[in-house]
Amino acid sequence: MNADAQRWKALFFISIAQLMVVLDSAVMNIALPSAQQALHFSDGSRQWVVTAYGLAFGALLLVGGRVGDMVGRKRVFLFALAGFAIVSAIGGLAVNAPMLLIARAFQGVFAALLAPAALSLISLSFTQPRERAKAFGVFSAVSVAGGAVGLIAGGLLTEYLSWRFSMFVLVPIAVIGILGAIPTVHDTTERHRARLDIPGVLLASFGLVAVVYGFSSAESDGWTGALTIASFAVGVLLLAVFIAVQARVTSPLLPLRVLTERNRAAAYLSVAFAALAMFGMFLLLSYYFQQVKGWSPVMAGLAFMPMAAAQVIGATQIGARLAHRIAPRPIMVGGYLVTAVGLVLLAVLDTGSGFPEIAVAETVVGLGIGAALMPAMSVATHGVAPQDAGVASALISSSQQVGGSIGTALLNTVATGSAAAYLVSHGGATVAESQVHGFSLAYWLATAVVLAAAAATAVMVNARSPKHAPATEDAPDLVAVH
């Protein structure tokens, strides 16, 4: 087999690994109501099934990239695929909520190792700009299509087999990836011997977990509860110490110079805000479709399609086209404002709302967020030094995952708490009406957060319009991460 055919085969198997990571997020959103019923965990703790994955993924992405550089990307890639298969099988066999949560957290750990290794291996295999763009285009298409496929697959598996197969289905995909990658994927022999910043890893990870746990505990203990306040205090303290440590160590996990440029800082902040709104919205919409509307898991998966399609159009036909012609700020601000309009349309839905109304709201959200995130990914590496390009790329994905983890915990807490209060204060209200009231308040909060993303972008982003279509190699990497 010639080297060219070998590289494209390698791309196929690397893309399979990416498909597995994307599927994992999507299928669980659909399967979660059934899993909650089967394993008997509370409304307050249900978001941890999503949050455990996103938090581990986001917190350890920077570590994953560094480990791949140190011990070899192919070795880490294969190890992560094997680990993902094992913990997915454990999750599918879960007999209680803690067992499922632990499996989901370890899926996030292995995804954090897998994603940077996959991107690096493609970069090493395709060095010519034209081929490189084509390879990352394939990889990005798998990422986008995988989300839509995952929603439908999650519905079919949950309805006709069991929610457990939403976890089991990842095992054969991982095995195919391993068997195909062993002969086709090749790595360089170069290794970076920089030491891993273990204190940084521990401080960042435990700090983020404490902050997210604070949002979650507010549902049961209240916002002024001792556990809630203690969690927030410990989390903020650990993250503050993390920043102080990063300024002093010789090989920091997160070089602070990456954060000091205003455009990059705005990109990380606005993407975290956007993810906060979007991840929480996905969780609540899944429950709205299945519990309030009474739709089957398959119907719930199909009901997400208007948003998935609109997001692809927003990214490829609006964001990408405009990004070559005008400065990123108006695209990002406009996209976030359109997203806020869509969230308002979701907030005014009630128990009797039909699919056309839901589809319109989803389409508006998808177009807005797709258009906004495309230039945000590019701004994330604005003016970055070559040696920091990998960190900047991982950090934008970390912003998404961590923001999404906080958003899932926060919006779920607001929704469940306000629904319970509404049921008590309105004696004749049905459970469905109280749920819709809780969802509505959560969507209004999500709207405010997206407006904050628009404001941060308007104030901080000042990157200029490109003179011509970007020729840098960072952009497709970032799109692929997204």
Automatic annotation (TrEMBL):
InterPro entries: EmrB-like, MFS, MFS_dom, MFS_trans_sf
Membrane-protein topology: Multi-pass membrane protein
Molecular function as annotated in GO: transmembrane transporter activity
PROSITE patterns named in the record: MFS
Descriptive protein name: Drug resistance transporter, EmrB/QacA subfamily
Domain named Major facilitator superfamily (MFS) profile: residues: 10-465
Record's keyword annotation contains Nucleotide-binding: no
SUPFAM superfamilies named among the record's database cross-references: MFS general substrate transporter
Protein's organism: Asanoa ishikariensis
Domain of life: Bacteria
GO cellular component: plasma membrane
Spans traversing the lipid bilayer: 45-64, 76-95, 101-124, 136-157, 163-184, 196-216, 222-245, 266-289, 295-319, 331-349, 441-461
Compartmental location: Cell membrane
Sorted UniProt keywords: Cell membrane, Membrane, Transmembrane, Transmembrane helix, Transport
